[in-house]
Specification:
Two copies of one chain form a homodimer. Chain A has nine helices and twelve strands. With 310 residues, chain A is an alpha/beta fold.
């Protein structure tokens, strides 16, 4: 039986992926190898060029290299008959939790203030401005990554709530669900952390109306997608004092342009989309396992509903 | 029956303690109230002036306002017949774990590098230089605070080991014990975190010999006491590249002198002894509960062995 053909549509820095020796599949690299469209059995990518996938008549499945699949579903011609598989490795949840914990703690423990005091040789000893148990963290999204992150934050003494499409049950986390409960959720979130998938419904969810519903002086962390945030609304909310600060790991256009006002904003921390990075060795195994299942007529877990994007 | 007299020997910034309305005891404030030495039944302090406690012939117990009792035991005339009680509230373990996690993550996730890249408007996207599971954290001390901190770090994927006087058993933590195993412990600690009590045996434990036994480029966090560290040895180890950086929350002399070379050292983060701060309301309750037990002829938990300081 012929080996299936796996087409990798990934940036050159992901060359570690196609350098792996893969006995079970033939690897084709988009932009490097020539191939006939009808020979493409599987695709692995973060964000294939719009229209590319519909040109493969025999495509059996598409694998996302990230936990989010918005890079596929933003293609209006994505072939809906093709199963789309999400990368949902534990390592991504661990890395995301690390990122969120670090920035929540830098904020909660006033580490930026101590950094500044150090530069000025000032011994600025003080108690925490807010006790941990009175610091309410609101997670947007409570899937695998959100749940893991929520547990780690609770163990450090924070008060947790989460908002999601459908009500979730996680001990210790106050659950809010759907549009009807969105404002009640926001009203008690001192630190708002966005971990949502990017869909038509969540695009632009971090906007002026949302910021106005948060407690005065709230803090925002976006580690999901740049498309969740209306940048101009964030800058206005920081200027008015409604928000006290933000951490942004993701942007509408990446890399963030040199001229962006976000870079030197004194209340914004910018990181270069590094909150959770897929590891090539783990990603390769996830694709091989998935292909093996499809070839046997079975289906892997984590197939995305192309209509709802979940 | 007369109320017992509690003498508070604390800095003025702790005035919240003596402002509490305490029905069960008479509060005396050292330096504010006049009192007869024979009337002092209990003392609450971080660090009473040497020789003070021996002048109280009827002292029934001394309460430490911190988890460490070195501030009492550095008094060569501490009256050894007097029980010394340590403050061991869960809130201190939570705050210490927050501090250690934050600084481990800032180091592990290269946040200082991203801060610098942001100032330069550079999009410096990269994978973690070392995978989390290959990052070995060595804790000096595995008491209540150390154990709580170890569990939180393990849940974030780090490899944990600990060194303590006697062997401890904590699932997932490699335990090293006593002087015989000290070098083996150090040889595998990429990030060394000091949470020890300060005793005659642990004073100066963070010295040139210790740093030489760590892996090349190791990182050190001291959140215990300034007396654990030989500052000149740290500066030399950073200069030679043996150590790559350090976080110091505690110092031999506090506040840290304006002229100290630690303030502007590019590889050292200085914080003003804020890793874990006793909360007045909780501390007052701990003292009242302890006094109630002593008055009934019982003894509270967390009485320190004055000889070993544990």
């Amino acid at each position: 039986m012929a080996k299936p053909n796996l087409l990798m549509v990934v940036p050159a820095k992901w060359s570690a992926l196609w350098a792996s020796s893969l006995d079970a599949v033939n690897v084709l690299v988009h932009g490097r190898d020539s191939y006939a469209p009808e020979n493409v059995d599987y695709v692995l990518s973060f964000r294939p060029p719009p229209g590319l996938l519909k040109s493969f008549p025999n495509l059996k499945a598409a694998f996302s290299l990230g936990a989010g699949v918005d890079g596929f579903l933003c293609d209006p011609e994505y072939p809906r008959r093709v199963p789309l598989v999400r990368f949902a490795d534990k390592s991504l949840a661990v890395e995301m939790a690390q990122f969120v914990l670090m920035h929540v703690l830098i904020r909660h423990r006033c580490q930026r203030l101590f950094d500044e005091a150090q530069r000025k040789r000032q011994w600025r000893q003080m108690a925490l401005p807010r006790r941990t148990e009175d610091t309410r963290i609101g997670l947007l999204g409570l899937g695998e990554i959100g749940s893991f992150t929520a547990r780690r934050l609770m163990e450090l003494g924070f008060a947790l709530s989460a908002w999601s499409r459908s009500r979730k049950s996680l001990p210790g986390v106050r659950s809010f669900a759907g549009e009807a409960e969105f404002d009640a959720f926001l009203g008690q979130a001192d630190i708002l952390v966005c971990l949502l998938s990017l869909t038509r419904k969540t695009a632009g969810i971090l906007n002026a109306r949302t910021f106005a519903a948060l407690p005065q002086g709230a803090f925002v962390i976006n580690a999901a997608r740049g498309g969740h945030l209306i940048e101009a609304d964030l800058i206005a909310a920081l200027a008015s004092g409604r928000l006290s600060g933000a951490v942004l790991d993701v942007f509408e256009n990446e890399p963030l342009a040199k001229a962006s006002p976000l870079w030197n904003h004194p209340k914004i921390t910018v990181t270069p989309h590094i909150a959770a990075v897929s590891q090539p060795a783990i990603a390769v195994q996830y694709v091989l396992d998935g292909i093996a299942l499809f070839e046997r007529g079975q289906r892997p877990e984590n197939i995305v509903d192309v209509e709802t994007a979940y």
